[in-house]
Amino acid sequence: MPNTADTGSDAPIDVTPLLDDPYPAYAALREAGPVHRITAADGNPAWLVTRYDDVRSGLADPRLSLDKRHAAPGGYQGFSLPPALDANLGNMDPPDHTRIRRLVAKAFTPRRVEALRAPTRKTADALLDAMAERGRADLIADYAGPLPITVICDLLGIPHRDRRDFLAWSDALITPDPSRPELMKEAIGAMQEFYTGLIAAKRAEPGDDLLSDLIAVRDDPAPGEGAGEEGSERLSEDELTSLAFLLLFGGYENTVHLIGNAVLTLLDHPDQLRQLQRDPAELPAAVEEFLRYDGPGPLSLRRFPTEDLEIGGVRIAAGETVLLAIASANRDPERFPDPATFDRGRDRSGHLALGHGIHYCLGAPLARMETVIALEALLDRFPGLRLDVPRGDLRHRRALRSRGLISLPIAF
């Protein structure tokens, strides 16, 4: 890392090491200070918070707003989305956040998630059957990607014919090509058109799926309730479309990276892989360490202080952009001793990979269940699982907001 000793200074640090080799870079930043000025992906400034206690506090601090209306001009604001996709939980504070989260939380109750367990295992087995015929595969393209997209699309009621397009649009958003900025704009436009058409189709012919249920909430509120009003249980049309976008995009992106990172971690630790093959009942606990050790979301959603405040002794003005470095917090030795070691026996309680506070990941139970099943099925089917390319040939997506492999060639 470049010199970062001037903690809190206005001179932004170079974030390239965070893209290329993030964990040593985060360690250097934590050592240098708790808060650093950076230049974000869109070229605008932001503050990066790196130590566990500050990150955890920031995730639950109501003064750090997700609502872009609190953003000062010229700061990093994340994706630029049209209103029909932007009215989602990732941009909301209470009371709107509370209202919408309550509406969708019933989709991720333990009972609902448990009902998805058997279909998820059936999908995993079918994907493994196809892989087994070849003797080798790209774990990301052939397994870690198709499994969560199938599960979340089935939950929402999205037809099979549309799923390949969605994967292409997601890639354009997750890892945009800086030389072709028009691709992201095209993907956003295609997604908006897709969701608008899908909602219209389900209005005409509702199904037994979550999206049809949400449309019913939008169209048939309790008497006297208005769309998007405080105290109302009704969704506005933009909120409905945005919620469908967030559920599909988030349900796919985080889980595909979590599964891929977990498998690579096991290939890097063959003794741990063999132990989990012998005792798959340990997988739920192992998933928590996978989340801490190499989780899918290095940074929180950007936040905007509603008033001047201090984090780690650094003054941050109202409206400036704050990024909470979850990946750094989960490797903070003050909270997790020997943090660079993958240790399934450690105390993993309090890891922040799925957030903290009122914005804790809504789909966390589903992501955990999918990952356990994906690993259980894979390790059971292919006891001789191994990497099919030199370790140094593997590449991660170059993105601050997601941590995932481009591909993971395996043989068995």
What is the gist of this entry?
With 412 residues, the protein is mainly α. It contains 17 helices and 10 strands. The chain starts with 15 loop residues before the first helix and ends with a strand.
Structural write-up:
The chain is 48% helix and 8% strand. With 412 residues, it is mostly helical. The strands form 4 sheets. It has a 3-stranded mixed beta sheet, with helices on one face. The chain is globular.
* Average pLDDT score: 89
How would you write the strand order of the largest sheet? 1-2-8
Strand content: 5-15%
Shape: globular
Q: How many helix segments? A: 17
| Residue runs with pLDDT of under 50 for 5 or more positions | 1-9, 223-231
Largest sheet report: 3 strands, mixed
Helix/strand layout:
Blueprint: H1 16-20, H2 22-32, E1 35-39, E2 45-49, H3 52-60, E3 64-65, H4 83-86, H5 96-105, H6 110-115, H7 117-132, E4 136-138, H8 139-144, H9 146-156, H10 163-174, H11 182-204, H12 210-219, H13 237-268, H14 270-278, H15 283-294, E5 304-305, E6 309-311, E7 314-316, E8 322-324, H16 326-329, H17 364-381, E9 386-387, E10 409-411
Search tags:
10 strands, 3-stranded mixed β-sheet, disordered N terminus, globular, 48% helix, mainly alpha, 412 residues, 3-stranded antiparallel β-sheet
